[in-house]
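Bench notes, afternoon.
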Amino acid sequence: MRRLLVGVCIVALLWSVGVACLAQDGYAQGYEDGRRAAEQDCNGLTHYVAGLALGVFYVGYALIAPPSPLPSGRMDEIQTKSDVYQEGYIAGYEAAMQGCRTSKALLGFGTWVIILYVISAAVQWP
């Protein structure tokens, strides 16, 4: 599990460095705006409860499944922007949503593991 988390962190770091190196004027601004919009849209409680209820299955889903598409309301907001800005916005939105979903699912699963540990320790108590 530790190797998986380290691997995910390394990939995220390399992705962010790659985006920074390849950033064009409108792309970088769109990317940051997309990340901010995704942070506003992310419903962390839903992903936390799913991670708590479904455990490792939801964590696997959160890591593997593609992020949800950009909502139509957000798409309407960026219609007047350049194509490069829109590409950056969509990439930033998807990256932030994926990160939110994965981190909240891991937090829910971690809570589940702690609860199981506490229950097992209480049962073994003399």
